[in-house]
Flagellar motor switch protein FliN (Mesorhizobium amorphae CCNWGS0123), 128 residues
Amino acid sequence: MAKTKVEAELDQPDEQLDRAIEELRGVLQEEEKRPDVAFRAASGANSNIIMSIPVDVQIILGSTEMPVSDLMALQKGSTVALNRRIGEPVDVVVNGRKIARGEITVLESDPSRFGIRLTEIIAATKSA
């Protein structure tokens, strides 16, 4: 069965994220304009539904290119050099889209774990 244009567009992860963000912005803008308390309670429930949607968050430390022969030669203890240096910011990627940069930090509450301190939020751009 052939997909409609709308269905085909919704299959694109970036477009799904764009539509969800725009829908959320519209709901929040409408909520700010309406003083009705009942409306605020109802839209608050809608916001909670949207806010509970899981997203894939990745922190990209770096990347490299190598021939398949080098890849096949990797074994336990091998070191792979990345394209970033120590101290350079890492990329924060949500659903495949870079949204921020940050620096690696040790968690104060648990020194055995590390996290990311955001240093720059990348402005969203509209896709054509």
